[in-house]
Amino acid sequence: MLVEDSALTVEEIHEEMEKKLSGVVPAGELRYKAELVHQIRILKKEKNAVILGHNYMEPALFHTIPDFAGDSLDLSRKAATTDKDIIVFCGVRFMAETAKILSPAKKVLLPSEKAGCSLAESIAADDVRQLKKRYPGVPVVTYVNTYADVKAESDICCTSSNAAEVVTSLNADTVIFIPDEYLAKNVARETGKHIIFPVNENGLTENKELSEDTTLDYQMIGWKGRCEVHEQFKVEDIYNVRAQFPDVTVLAHPECSPEVVSNSDYSGGTNALIRYIEENDVKRFLLLTECSMADNIIAAHPDKETIRLCSIRCEHMNQITLEDTLNALRYDRYIIEVPEDIRQRAYRAVNRMLEIG
Predict the structure, then answer these.
(1) At what angle do helices 93-102 and 72-80 cross, to 10 degrees?
(2) Which domain holds residue 132?
(3) Is 164 a residue whose pLDDT tops 90?
């Protein structure tokens, strides 16, 4: 990240951005965006705000305005330790909700009201209540990529990096793991558990009364939610890249299919993937996750080379821009609210995960 200083002029910010981002961001955009960065930094200081930038933010934003950058849970934890009055979360809605869950006294702003998530929207609180009714007494592990009301129906949350550890920590014969189908399958494989996915009479997991299982031998109960970005990566993509670049290191997010993960060299959450690249002798890599993260890594590590398999951009993350971040600070929009009864129950699920480490 660039050195933060609200006293820097637009020209000085532009020079810093050129040094860092000239090979990543088109030159024509840098001066215009430098002016936005300058205004955001001044307003952030005036309003006593902290800005959080998720690893999937576009480079001109990611490398200029965040006080903290990283994955969603790490960012929420850091924001909870600050003395700032306002949290501006450059990410998507469930991330901003998690920040509010952990920091109820702070005003939390999401720069775009359209920044949702296909995975979070794949399951509702009533779906979880139906699963708990159908499998009474079975603990519910919920991926943090969910909305607050779903977390509130859960026993414990997990991240993509600690999901297997959380499942193992419960010492339960059976667990419900929601909502990501691929992450659940990857965790089942890692923990040696047999997983099933309840379906209705149409073969679809829906927010309706679920049909009876025909399989009795299982230790995990999953849900067929998917990330619309990670489900697009295929094993054939890996084969094709390895054929052209035998020295490539393939890195996959655990929201990719089990076949993709098993054919990769390493799998982990966004922070873990970045650490792997930084701490290992990785010169050329294929990153199977949201494409802006590869741009951010290259901007920070120009000695490394990324293989441009495709340009899969999350349309929800792409909603967050420097312009909208500036307007969020100017007009206090869009304010994230979580009803207190839901927040308290969701906090218990999140905090139980944090206590594991």
Answers:
(1) 30
(2) 120-226
(3) yes
